[in-house]
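Support request, please re-run this one:
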Amino acid sequence: MRHPYEAHRSFIRPAWAARETWRILVMIVCFEIVFAVSPTIFTAFLPSDAAVDAFYEGTTAFGTLAQFASFGISAIGFLVLLRLLHGRGFWSLIGPAHAARRDLIRVGRAVAIWLFVFEFLPPWINPADLAEVRDFGVWASLIPLALVAVLIQVGTEEMFFRGYLQQQCACISNSPWAWMVLPSVMFGALHFWNGNGAAEGVLWAIWATALGIACADLTARTGNLGAAVGLHMANNVFALLVVGVQGWPSSGLALFLYPYEDPALYAYGIEALLSPWIVFQLLTMLTSVLIMWLAARIALRR
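Re-run finished. Output below.
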């Protein structure tokens, strides 16, 4: 019987030549530095102070698109570090180009269909609760730019976590705890800061860890990054394009906007994790990841 992760062996092969642990540790530290300075580098190329302010606020279409496009600076820095530390390049992280492109399209389409259907399930959007509905024509015209910007952002994250770290950790140990769970926990930990308080931060971290595990599994099954990028990209595109809150970061592309609320209202302490509402919210988030993963598996037939 064929092992479900048989394709993973060929996927990690490019990492074998330079698999020393010290190289991974240096890469993690250096990439975090590159990631931290990327916004400063990106804004240096913006034409005005107003454009810089829009970038950091992320409440306009330009600002949101610029935020996601700025991940390209991190991607370039990462690929330079990859060449210096491991002597390999972009395609060593991706896998076979044709298969990656095919799996990205298949999974991205399947997950997008599921998310579209999900939008029609309760709780429904009540127009009376909305502060603004953006012009549909303008909103639709921005979708191609949003797809490009999200691909840059998602591609950067997937190259590092499901490409680089998954490959390198698999060369150290063939246990899924090493190459699937550990990079996903690191990925989840970075998302803690997306929350408005400790409780919401933990929800983000757990959700992102689950998403990372789903993407790592798809990568191991297919031997390329296409499926992981497709799932991750469909999720992020829907999060950006459908619903937002006025004045909140990354709300510049949402079609439906709810009235502004002070984020401090959601800054619950860690003790709130035991409340029934938070537990229900977490279960809902994890169920969504599970269904996206199942949609991807069906699309891939693996």
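The two ends are 13 Å apart (CA to CA). The first strand starts at residue 132 and ends at 133.
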